[in-house]
Amino acid sequence: MSSDGRIITKLLGLSGSIRRESFNTAILLSMAGRLRGDVTLSLHPLNEVPAYNQDCDGDLTPAVVRELRRAVGAAHGLVVCSPEYNYGMSGLLKNAIDWISRPAMKSTLKGKPVLIMSCSPSSTGGARAHAQMREALSACLARVVARPQVAIASAKEKIQNGRLIDNDTLVLLDGAVKDLLEEIAA
Known about the structure:
Structural class: alpha/beta
Shape: globular
CATH architecture: 3-Layer(aba) Sandwich
Low-confidence stretches: none
Helix content: 25-40%
Strand content: 15-25%
Largest sheet: 6 strands, parallel
Number of strands: 8
Order of helices and strands: EHEHEHEHEEHEEH
CATH topology: Rossmann fold
Distance between the termini: 19 Å
CATH class: Alpha Beta
Number of domains: 1
Mean pLDDT: 94
CATH superfamily: Flavodoxin domain
């Protein structure tokens, strides 16, 4: 709750890229900078999350994974943005989803509203990665926001100094966040 009594909606961003100048991280940071005062978006890094190993789950779950699960559980909704690698989402993001999705059918993803986005320097904007994210998150019982795809094409031309500068894409992101907030309120 804010100091003036308003309820704060907490969004958690997950970037499927750990590249120093990641377009996906730039998109999430640009989105965070446009939110109104009663909505926040914080990014959770995935670069230290180990490869999923069921032998290490349960009592042996690594601390970094416990923190990721805690962050997902504390968020009202997720914003996930991935590059497209070989026609799919990044392995980094898929690995994080595998960890977060446990225990199966009872994870913090169950019922969690999720906005999915893809971003790529290609002309398709990562649309195939987008489809793979939708399928994986739906299988985890997340509430993927039903809306037109947010697949940001030609990212290299739309991002400068780590921020999205393309006005049409910024307007698209504003609409996507509005849809996520409506899903959270439902």
